[in-house]
Amino acid sequence: MPMPPVLKRLLPPILMVLLGLAGLYVVTVVYATGETLLAGVMLVTLVCFVWIYTSKKTYAYRYLFPGIGAALIFVVFPMLYTIRIGFTNYSSTNLLTFKRATQYLLEETYRADGATYNSELHADGSRWRIRLEDADSGAAFVTEPLALGAEGTHLTLKAQPATGPLPGDEMPLKDLIDRQPFLKGITVVMPDGGQVRMTGLREFAPSRPQYTRNPDGSLTNNQDHSVIRPNHKTGFYETADGDQVTPGFQVDIGWKNYVQIFTDTSLREPLWRIFIWTIVFSTLTVVFCTTLGMVLAVLLSWENLRFRGMYRLLLFLPYAVPGFISILVFKGLFNNNFGEINLVLNGLFGIKPTWFSDPFLAKTMILIVNTWLGFPYMMVVCMGLIKAIPQDLYEASAVAGAGPITNFFRITMPLILKPLTPLLISSFAFNFNNFVLINLLTGGLPDFLNTSTPAGTTDILVSYTYRMAFQDSGQKFGLGAAISTVVFLMVAVISLIQIRSTRIAEDTKR
Amino acid sequence: MAIVIDKSQRWRVVAAHVFLICLCALVIFPLLMVVSISLRPGNFASGSLIPTTISLEHWRFALGLPVTNADGRVILPDLPVLRWLWNSVKVATLSATTAVLLSTTAAYAFARMKFAGKKASLVGLMLMQMFPTILALIAIHSIFSRLGHTFPAFGIDSPWALVLAYSGGIALHIWTIKGFYETIPSEIEEAATVDGATPWQAFWRVLLPMALPIIMVIFLLAFIGAVNEYPVASILLRSQDQLTMAAGMKQFLYQQKYLWGDFAAAAILSGLPIAVVFILVQRWMISGLTAGANKG
User: Fold this and answer.
1) Exposed, middle or buried: residue B194 (CB in 10 Å: 0-12, 13-18, 19+)?
2) Residue A120's pLDDT is what?
């Protein structure tokens, strides 16, 4: 059905206004939950969206906005955020924001003096009543009916002396356990004015909040009347003696992480060795892959050789198999005890190398696997470059009586090495950050001895920061992000060299 | 071609064949071994490349069917391989679709329109591609766990978080599609514009149908990329049922729980289709890219 022209003209602006308003509403809701950063990002996105899709001048940007926006939000923003985290103490001990940490402390309770009640929940239609029985005197009380809700709701119920046993069925223990987080938010006011809360699965007792907030931001401990104050330098609430109260919160600590990286010997020592290994690993990988790839490319470009297509397909296979699968396949094949590689070696030479526990053998294994994974790419690239070499060069050299070895070293290699250089650098950069290989094959193991945080002899920089943040050493996000930032700078330098060499390669082509 | 033929040429050909056959054997050995292992009974059994007894227990495990043990006990597979495979396919389809939508439109602006900051943004995209995502893992984890507080559908353990995280990595796709658009003469769209088509219609009705081959290639590449992606998936997905194949596979080879045979079956199940698609696309992509390069 065709739309009337007026409607067709008015529809886009109306839709735009509605979208804008809906967006604003969502932003406000998000802002109200305290996620200022998220709300800010959303607001900027929304404003850009409305501006770009309403202004005539920004027509080209309408096509760019979704793609560039996604790239900015999900690639550039995380990078900047990484740098930001590097200046904070974000870690497992300082996981929460200041606001949430304060809230957590204010929700802490302690058990005050007074009567303890045994509790039972009885069904009352679709709702429930709590029956409380004084543990000492046996006096029974019953609350008004309540509907079960979500965790985090706070309810106050009044209790009356019970007139007899409650008719409804008691809640089974399993449900009681499931509902405990909700039930803990209930405060029951007894007829004498005392307040009790759930302190055990079947127990209510007077409990009071552990802390009360003072106007100056400090918290008073209701149990012993001491005062704790937030210290925004260390990221903890501290007592007068300087004792830290967990949980801590995130604060900026300036350059502390960086100072630690470069001066703390227990950290600097493994970091330096990991850095050296990262360089050695990426360099050797590039050398091995390129050498093998280039030799194969020369052989497969040799027209007197038959079955070249078949060889090419077979040799290309490692590149086609998903990396996570082939790396894990090698992990199994190299297994010390029942790996097929050791079975073959044992049968042929009677040796069983311990690939995973000896640092040198582990490094050798990594290089073997990475060469297997990486040479097909180099082979395909070199074959393309060899095709571009003019044939008359070889004819001239044949006339001069040169053999294939001379041809390779005097013609083929010098001619393809220059256009190959940018690719070699990008391959170096890729392996510099080849996290998947290290993480899946050895996980960085075997570890160094005597280090403050677990560090492996086969770890490269990125797998080391990963372990620091997500594995065995207690979620040191801040420190990990600081190391990532340093690696960022290294990658930037490598990229700069790559851009420069690409330009040189293009200039010589012209 | 060199006309002068050396005497030693025949020997060189034989030597080259021997070398290549040995190398092919080395390259193929791990792959054939996996097939053999997936058919051997037991998780620790060793034997020759061609298994003497063929057992389908690992394949039953990978497909989630109950397996009868050697001592007669029936065990249900505890690693939901098919579920992971489905998660992988789901995430990959969604993120490949997103990648195609985002990159075809952006590439259109880059290929056909004039606007401020065009060159800078193209270079910027290239630079972005150089910085590996792995370096921002901590930030990505933190961003999505915070996002999850407000929007649980996009938090940790949600496939949508992964789709969002992957949606930024389209720089290379934009460059590829832009190259392809530039091979299509702009006169065709200009003709459409003369007939009264808006730029959007010229794009949607004229250019895009012609760019279908490259769109297919980008879709498949993005699909394979998402299936193979391991680091981001491994930090954003935590619970067993939400894992993708790439994030879950390593659970087969824990020191305490070593399921070598079951791993082999699962690896073939998920790896074979991807490898086949990759070999097909690779050829297609090289022709698409060189076609794009011819013009410039």
Assistant:
1) exposed
2) 84
Interface of B with A in 176-195 (CB under 8 A): none
- pLDDT < 50: residue spans in chain A: none
For the segment B2-19, the average pLDDT, to the nearest whole number, is: 74
Inter-chain residue contact A85 with B142, CB threshold 8 Å: yes
Please indicate whether, in this complex, the C-beta atoms of B246 and A324 are within 8 angstroms of each other.
yes
Contacts of B4 in chain A (CB under 8 A): 398-399
Which of B114, B142, B271 is the closest to A325 by Cβ? B271
Say what the pLDDT of residue A317 is: 86
Q: Which CATH class is domain A260-509?
A: mainly alpha
Q: Where are the domains of chain A?
A: 5-85, 109-209, 260-509
- Give residue A330's pLDDT: 92
What CA–CA distance (Å, rounded) separates B283 from A434? 26
Chain A residues with beta carbon closer than 8 angstroms to that of B121? 64, 68
CATH superfamily, region A109-209: D-maltodextrin-binding protein, MBP (2.40.430.10)
Please, are residues B188 and B195 in contact by the beta-carbon 8 Å criterion? no
pLDDT in tens, B143-166: 898 888 888 888 888 899 999 999
- Mean pLDDT value of segment B261-286: 80
Please name the helix (run of DSSP H) or strand (run of DSSP E) that holds residue A42, with its range, or none.
helix A36-54
Q: Residues of chain B with pLDDT > 90: what percent?
A: 17
Quick one: pLDDT band at residue B47, thresholds 50, 70, 90? Answer: low
Interchain pair A404, B27: CB under 8 A = no
Range in A53-67, A244-258, B221-235, B276-290 with the lowest mean pLDDT? B276-290
Q: Choose among A325, A470, A495: nearest Cβ to B127.
A: A495
Q: How many CB atoms lie within 10 A of CB B72?
A: 6
Question: Does the domain made of A5-85 have the CATH classification 3.40.50.300?
Answer: no
Q: What is the ipTM of this complex?
A: 0.86
pLDDT at residue B2, as a whole number: 46
Asked whether residue B3 carries a pLDDT value surpassing 70, the answer given is no
Contacts of A488 in chain B (CB under 8 A): 131, 135
pLDDT computed for residue B70 by the predictor: 63
User: B residues 158-177 near A, CB within 8 Å?
Assistant: 164-171, 174
pLDDT for res B294: 35
Q: What is the nearest CA distance from A347 to chain B, expressed in angstroms?
A: 12
